[in-house]
Structure formats: C-alpha cells, structure tokens
Amino acid sequence: xxxxxxxxxxxxxxxxxxxxxxxxxxxxxxxxxxxxxxxxxxxxxxxxxxxxxxxxxxxxxxxxxxxxxxxxxxxxxxxxxxxxxxxxx
Length: 89
Hints:
By secondary structure, the chain is mainly β. It has no helices and seven strands. Helix content is about 0%, strand content about 40%. A hairpin with a 4-residue loop joins β2 (about 30-35) and β3.
C-alpha cells in the first residue's frame, strides 16, 4: 500500500478496499474480498493464484482454515467463485 501512495495498510481488510482498480474478471495477483453481512464490511481477503475457469479461481489465503474461515491458523489454497469483489494494485 505504501508503494501505491495509500495511507493505512496492515491486515485490516477494509484498508484494501481502497482499490487502484476494481475488476470483474480476476486474474493472478488480484485480491479478492469477502463481505461478511454480520460485520457489515469486507472481513477476509485472498490472493488469486490461478484462474481455473470463467466461474472459479484458486486462492492463497492466510488466517484461514480447511473450511475457508477468516480466523484460522493456516495458509491455505481454496477454490472460490470468480464472481465477487476484486481489486488490482
């Protein structure tokens, strides 16, 4: 974030929702944000490692678990829908 001139940063996901560009066709390196209605904010983030198809992406995500939760203790790779909020820095 510092390299882009943005203030903030760190692990708080809403900071990453100040995008250089919002994209609807995610590719490798884009960041996917997951909205949590109970928190009324984006609260989990992942990096796209591969576009599998027009409908799905493979991810790398931290603070996760095998079920894809947001408060885990692992770095995992998941398959997630390509539809959603993605930012490209």
